Structures are given as structure tokens and as C-alpha cells.
Amino acid sequence: MERPPNLAAAIDAAAESLVGVLDSAVSRHQMAVSPTQLRVLSLITGRPETNVNGLAELLDVVPSSASRLCDRLEATGLLRRVPDPRDRREVRLVPTAAAESLLRELQERRHRAVQAVLDRMPGRTQHELLVALLAFERAAAADSSVRTA
């Protein structure tokens, strides 16, 4: 099967639509934290051994900026800094139960918003989309320069 010449543009447009759906699921509700703070919580939830320097690397910011983000999250009760049990000079970033609850709620909202769009698509098209997305994910994972967050 030959690739349509506008496939990359179509994927880019679909990705923009998806981002719009996901963003609207969050923006319709008052969130107590900024999108950047939500990203920090998501990153450290998925990487339990993250410290401030590691977070700075993930965010591509200087450590002092990452530290200030952590200060704000700690002040709101969404993040704790705990000593690393293997090296007490190191401090790990740990999301609190409130942060985990917030992330679960956010994920549920986003899933409902995406499902509402999927429900407007025929079942066969949904299946084809699933197959295509899984293939895309595998191809992206084969490229070590692609980072997922």
C-alpha cells in the first residue's frame, strides 16, 4: 500500500485535535496546579527514583528551575522530598497520595473526553485506529531518539 503524500500532515492535524480534546477535559474544570506542575507530577510518578537534577534533565531546564517547581508542589501538598535509602545525600521526589488522586482524576477526565470522540466514530474505524496507533507506537519505540513522557 502506497503512503498518501499528506499522511504526516494528517497525523499532525489529528495530534492537534487530540491535544485539544485532552486540554479541554482539563480546562473545563478548575485545576489547582499548572500544566507544567501536572507534567512534573506525571514524570515523577512514572520514575520513582527521580531527583531534582533528573527532573531538570527530563524537563530540559536548569536544576534551580526544577527545584522551584518542586517547592511549589511541596507547598501544595502534592510532592515530598525524601532521602534516598541507598544514598542519604540524595533526595528523591515522591508524589503524595493527593497527587496520585489528582492524576487519576485527570486521566479519567481525559479518557472520558477521548471516548466521547471515539463514540462518534464507526466501530470498524475505531479498530483500524487502534491497530494503526499500536503500529505507530512500536515504530516510534524502535527510534531511541523519541522520548515519551
**Proportion in helices:** 55-70%
Give the neighbour order of strands across the main sheet: 1-2
Second CATH tier, the architecture: Orthogonal Bundle
Overall strand count? 2
Q: What count of domains describes the coordinates?
A: 1
Full CATH superfamily name: Winged helix-like DNA-binding domain superfamily/Winged helix DNA-binding domain
On the 0 to 100 scale, the average pLDDT is: 88
Distance between the termini: 32 Å
**Largest sheet descriptor:** 2 strands, antiparallel
Keywords:
mainly alpha, 149 residues, 2 strands, single chain, Arc Repressor Mutant, subunit A
In short:
By secondary structure, the chain is mainly α. It has six helices and two strands.
Architecture overview:
The chain is mainly alpha-helical. The protein has a single domain (31-141), classed as Winged helix-like DNA-binding domain superfamily/Winged helix DNA-binding domain (Arc Repressor Mutant, subunit A, Orthogonal Bundle), CATH 1.10.10. The chain is 64% helix and 7% strand. The chain has six helices and two strands; from the N terminus they run H-H-H-H-E-E-H-H. The protein has helices at 7-27, 35-46, 52-59, 63-75, 97-118, 123-141; strands at 79-83, 91-95. Strands 1-2 form a two-stranded antiparallel ribbon. A hairpin with a 7-residue loop joins strand 1 and strand 2. Helix 1 (7-27) packs across helix 5 and helix 3 crosses helix 4. The model has no long low-confidence stretch (mean pLDDT 88).
